[in-house]
Design goal:
With about 60 residues, this protein is mainly α. It has one domain. It is about 85% helix and about 0% strand. It has two helices and no strands. α1 packs antiparallel against α2. The two termini are about 15 Å apart.
């Protein structure tokens, strides 16, 4: 995969996480601390692989 595709995939993962938060907030309630932790863990896990791949592509 090239650098642009990895960057776009990373953006997509972050956007999906933001959309999940927005959906909950638009439902008229705040995120519980547990929901925040689960969402943060999910976003961290999904983006860490793409960040590692991006770093690998940038390293000569």
């Amino acid at each position: 995969m090239n650098e642009l595709l990895v960057t776009l995939r990373l953006i997509a993962e972050l956007t999906q996480g933001a959309e999940q938060v927005a959906s909950i907030l638009q439902g008229g309630r705040d995120l519980t601390p547990e929901e925040l932790n689960v969402l943060k863990s999910r976003i961290d896990a999904s983006t860490s692989g793409w960040l590692a791949e991006l770093e690998r592509l940038r390293t000569p």
